[in-house]
Design brief:
This protein is 27% helix and 28% strand. The chain is of the alpha+beta class.
Length: 321
């Protein structure tokens, strides 16, 4: 007798475990780029397509010399509004063979790990699409360092040109602690002996670093084969706000069975926020109730509302040779 999906999946246990394993398996969470908070969990649970996040701008203006003949001139604080989009995604698997093959081991753990690894990849894909759209917005031009039109070494990623990219944040550049790059970019830097491997205090796997920044390799970042141009992103911790939602009536995990076909099904749904802090989602070009990755990559859907230094993300466009 084989083990069926419904025999091992307890939704109340399965879903939290998958979320936790997704965070453990994903480099964007391990690096600190994306940080989960209870507030964003709450926002992701709202019955809305997007959620508004008002904020206070910084204080500006010069100080004044005190005088016994005149009063100080009152300044004011400006309010602004950030807006995040709630992403609603799902996936179903036919699992008859999978359940049978996993019988005799720990089917629930094995199935959950497979699902978590899937979502770790999909979250990263959604983030890369978001970054493409964010930096296609004219409002983000101050945070783009493009050297691809230079000649020779001036167009190539190196320690020197990466420092120049980080300088886009000026005196806030120390906030940049992680870097997402194409595997070809990572290989080029490794050939220059610029990639170092560090063993974190927890865990046994060494992680790659470049200029002290955690390296995340993802071939989903933009690459133009015609010009040999690559895109690399530099991040500060918490630059991406993350929340897992549980709206009213939401069913994150369920199983089903087609008895006539002898087929078991596992359905997994996610409602979540992966929002670049300070860049408002405008919903200008969204056809459905939640944006696709293609719509996340659309420039018209994004507009910067924070001061550039507060964004904590820099786009670096370069060549590797």
């Amino acid at each position: 007798m084989t083990t069926r999906i419904a025999d091992v999946i307890v939704p109340e246990v399965f879903n939290p475990y998958v979320i936790q394993r997704t965070m453990e398996l994903s480099a964007i969470f391990q690096s600190g780029i994306a940080q989960r908070t209870q507030e964003f969990d709450r926002l992701a649970s709202q019955a809305a397509k997007t959620v508004n996040m008002p904020f206070w701008g910084d204080l500006t203006g010069d100080d004044e010399v005190l005088s016994d003949t005149g009063a100080l001139t009152p300044g004011k604080i400006q309010a602004g509004q950030d807006e995040a989009v709630i992403l609603r995604r799902g996936r179903a698997w036919g699992a008859n063979d999978l359940a049978a093959n996993l019988a005799g081991d720990d089917p629930m753990r094995a199935i959950a790990d497979l699902v978590a690894a899937y979502w770790a990849r999909r979250y990263q894909a959604a983030l890369i699409s978001t970054l493409q759209g964010v930096f296609a917005s004219p409002s983000m031009s101050a945070l783009v360092h493009d050297i691809s039109d230079q000649t020779g070494e001036a167009a190539v990623i190196s320690a020197k040109t990466t420092v120049d990219a980080a300088q886009k944040l000026g005196d806030a550049k120390a906030q940049l602690t992680a870097i997402v790059m194409h595997s070809a970019t990572e290989a080029a830097l490794a050939k220059q002996d610029l990639i170092e491997y560090v063993k974190p205090s927890t865990g046994s796997i060494e992680v790659p670093t470049f200029l002290g920044k955690r390296v995340i390799v993802d071939d989903g970042v933009p690459f133009d084969s015609g010009t040999g141009t690559y895109t690399t992103y530099l991040f500060g911790p918490g630059a991406i706000a993350y929340g897992e939602g549980n709206p009213v009536g939401f069913v994150p995990t369920e199983t089903d069975r087609d008895s006539l076909a002898g087929e078991d099904y596992l359905i997994n749904r996610r409602t979540f926020i992966l929002h670049p802090r300070g860049v408002r989602f405008t919903s200008a070009q969204v056809a459905g109730v939640s944006p696709t990755n293609t719509e996340l990559a659309t420039a018209a859907n994004w507009n910067r509302v924070y001061e550039p230094k507060a964004i904590r993300i820099v786009k670096f466009v370069h060549k590797i040779a």
